[in-house]
Amino acid sequence: MSLPISRRTLLAGAAGLAGSLAFPMPPSPPGLEDTMAADPAWAAYLGDLDPVWRKVPTSFYQAPFLGNGGLGAAVYQTGSAKRLAFKLGDSRVRDHQGTGGTNFGNARLPVGELTLSTAGDLTAVDLRLSLFDAELSGTITTSKGVLGLRAFVHATRDVLVISVNPKSGNEKVAWTFTPALARSPRLDFKPAPEGLRTNPPAALAGTTCTQNLVAGGQTVTRWQGTNTLLATVVHSFPARDAAAQAGRNLGAAADLGLDGLTQEHRRWWHAFYPKSFVSVADTRLESFYWIQLYKLASATRRDRPVLGTCGPWLEPTPWPGTWWNLNVQLEYWLVNATGHTELDSLTASLDAHRDNLVANVPAQYRSDSMAMARTSQEDLATGTAPVPGGDGDPEVGDLTWALHNAWLSYRHSMADGVLRDLVFPLLRKAINYYLHFLAKDPGGTYHLPRTFSPEYASTKDCNYDLALIHWGCATLLAANKRLKLGDPLAAKWQDVLDHLVKPPQDATNGFWIGADVQLTSSHRHYSHLLWFYPLYQLEVTDNPANRAALTRSMAHWLGYTGAQQGYTFTGSGSMYAVLGEGDKAHGQLSTLLDKYVQPNTMYKESGPVIETPLSGAQTMHDMLVQSWGDTIRVFPAVPTAWAEVTVHNLRTEGAFLISAVRRAGRTQFVRVRSLAGEPCQVVPGDLAGPYEVRSLTDGSAVPWQPGSGGSLRLPLSRGDDVVIVTRGTDPRLRIAPAASNTKRYWGLP
Question: Cα(338)–Cα(319) distance, rounded to whole angstroms?
């Protein structure tokens, strides 16, 4: 049963940054009717969006999935035996040999699977994954009877909890564990590098499986109980002492019992969801959206490893680690608007592993520079980053792009401590690495030697890197001014901004990959278009030339279809949203769901790749609320099909909470709450003018000034809470779900 809880202070986690990132969740002001303020409303609302399984899942891409940011489990029939298995994974389990780097000697390692060893063959299931409770429940039917099932990975304890009880027939319950081979999944796709050693077989003893590793350390899987099973996975390195922690995990869980574990688990999840609310009149996308929030909270937490391409659910994949040339960045965008800083393991990892970011550059640059090569594990040690103009394909910009995510975390909190202590010093060193290689031509223009545009080609004046350099210098200058640092490099940053070569492009096909390479074939990655999105360095709302350049570039990019993949459609959907073309953005999301997203909302190429569905949820945010360039845009790209929309407490840059309602195809009101007292400029969707701004605290009129592009400039102090309405009207300020159908779209309904 659901437990009554109050809204909680936002979690931040990392000791040095927690206080500056956390905001107390403000109660709804007296004039705002929030129908989603209590647990029963959330249980009913999310219950209508839960994925269900009426057929037996037989692959990971059909499976219910559970997790707590470290430990994960996917539930499906594996192999030829008709039995249900819980395939275990953990984002902390990896090898430590070093040989072959991320993909081989340091690769994430599979764990194994717990199989429900029924007497009869599995014939049917009737299962439901409750998003609100983060719990799988229902029945499984075998040739011998029917069993009731409940399962969850505990929200804060590394324990899988499974309750199985006979409901009819002669079925009995037993469990077996099958360890996986402790080898890199990459070996199924590529040959082993010379010197890679083979880990010994796992040792099974009773209800404990011990996997020792040749480089030191071990992984221990332990379980206990039958009708109520408790299982844990613990990885230790370099010591081989995981068994002791596994025993403590299970002992503490057993002391609480099933009811205590359930209450503790649900308490966390019930506090998780109400931090923000999004509802659109499109049940398939609405359900997809909330499953992505559930997925992200299942896949990572601020105190857990930075996300890998599979999350904690390691399946056959050539990518058993963390990828930094798009994957990581897309995985975390969802945390900003939703206010879920407790999931931001990216910013926390950048903060924790600064020394490795320095060690990643060649020795002669370590006094003032940082960088990352393409892949790492949780420690962000990538090996030596390539040198611009050097051999091979020097992919240089990945750290700078990751720091854009950290900057977004700052912008949504406006916590100057984050800017001063994390974003500024790391970005300064990332840009310094570029400054070693930028050179002026005789005409005074800065050029970049040959670097690699992710997944396409190397070229001089690569647009991927030029956009990141431009954003980095502009951000450093703004931070230097805000924090009054007087940095001696400020003149250099300004000089680079003033004299950086213009983006290579032409008047027919738009942006090139770089000065030496045009886009002439299909390209799933939008690395050459970062100028427009997500960096917003070329503004398209009020600049016709930039708008035309983006339109040409997208038409040319999307005109080649052979290599497009899922995130082609999330990225282009967001770019259409920037252009205000909601129907086209919606079309890209529809294609994503129709062609690429799997039954459980996962996504695959050669293996599971978690970033694409997560970035699809961000595309929805971009359609609903944008806040780049110091202006909040409400409903900037809502498609015609979404006649009803509700957003509540979505966070924006500048640290504002936005609530807005659209009914019968028209914006009814826009509410703005300031969390930091920053300057506020709002474009209130298609709300009919003339406008009136009222305080939600006392109902008094709030003066405002007209800004550019139909915006309102609001003089808000920290804590001010106002609503924008059409003058002379008194709309009902009601937060409630948009109209929807009751059809189930996800799982195997």
Answer: 28
Asked whether residue 2 carries a pLDDT value surpassing 70, the answer given is no
At 421-443, the pLDDT tens digits run: 999 999 999 999 999 999 999 99
Q: Which amino acid is at 24?
A: P
DSSP designation for 726: E
Taking the mean position of all CA atoms in its chain, how far away is CA 714? Answer: 31
Which range is least confidently modeled, 12-26, 178-192, 583-597?
12-26
Paired tokens of 249: 């995990």
Query: SS3 of 130, please?
Result: strand
Tokens for 276, please give them: 């923000």
pLDDT tens for 74-131 read: 999 998 899 999 999 999 999 999 999 999 999 999 999 999 999 999 999 999 999 9
What is the signed CA dihedral for 75, 78, 81, 85, rounded to 10 degrees?
-30
Report how far residue 178's alpha carbon sits from residue 451's, in angstroms, rounded to the nearest whole number. 46
- Measured on CA atoms in the order 641, 645, 647, 652, is the torsion positive or negative? positive
Q: Please tell me the distance from the alpha carbon of residue 513 to that of residue 713, in angstroms, as a whole number.
A: 39
CA pair distance 68, 76, nearest whole angstrom: 19
pLDDT digits (tens, 9 = 90+) for 219-230: 999 999 999 999
Distance, in Å, from the CA atom of 631 to the CA atom of 1, rounded to the nearest integer, reads: 43
Q: Where does residue 643 rank: exposed (0-12), middle (13-18), buried (19+ CB within 10 A)?
A: middle
Return the structure tokens found at 487: 């940095």
d(CA 334, CA 10): 15
